[in-house]
Structures are given as C-alpha cells and as structure tokens.
Amino acid sequence: MYPSGTVVKKGELKFETASEVIEHVGELTGYIAFTVKDKTGVQDASVALAKGKVKGAFFEHFKTKEKITGEQALEKIKSLQSHQGVYDVVSLSEEQVNLSIAVRPESEVKLEKEEKQVETSEEILKKYGLSSLVHNV
After folding, report:
1. What are phi and psi of 96, to 5 degrees?
2. What is residue 122's predicted lDDT score, i.e. its pLDDT?
3. 38 or 35: which carries more pLDDT confidence?
4. 3-class SS string, 42-62
C-alpha cells in the first residue's frame, strides 16, 4: 500500500496495543505496518502519518477476506493486540505519504479532532448572508 522507506523501528505487540504504538511514534512522517496472528487468523494493517498525525489507514483480514479503509480501519487497528503480532515503523517523505493517500483516497482518515479555525463574528455573519450587519457588530 505504501512505498518502501527507511525502517526506523521493529517491534512486537506483546505488551502494547497498536494504539499505543501509534501514540508513541512522535512526529513520524511515514507509516506503521502491523501483522497479527490470533485465533481468527492473520491480519495486516497499516497507518500512514504525517508529522505524527494520522492521515490514512488500511486493514485486511486474510481468512475472512475483510478489507476496511479510512476511519473504520483506524478503529479496528487501534484494538489490535496479540502475542504473535509484529510491527515496522517506516519513515517516508511527506510527499510520499500524500501521494499514497491520493492513489487510494478511500484510505484517508479525517479526524474530527484536527485543528479548526475559529471564525470571527464578521465571518459568521458573512457565511449566513448577513454581511449587512457586519458594521453594526
């Protein structure tokens, strides 16, 4: 799903969840690839990040042939934990991450917690067609 890059860390999901791995990569630009084997079969997953913020996610369960992308995949990935799970943290350029998401737009994750611009009262009035009131505010 993502281009090859520089592997900066390899680990096992013995004592931590995939969610904890994602939280502890810092300002990574690249992706984390997870492979987990449990009683339900083998699962592959990946999470793309740009400067530590999640940008894309993909999950696949080989036995059930289930494939999930985007926000739903991220939620599934966060719960991954297995004594037979491994992960690689891979560094990419921001352009490579963005291109990967552009090629598979269904994998994009749009988090509601992203920074939102605070609108001024003037912008709100203009937005609702009440710009004539701008001078009275």
Report:
1. -65, -40
2. 72
3. 35
4. EEEEEEEEECCEEEEEEEEEC
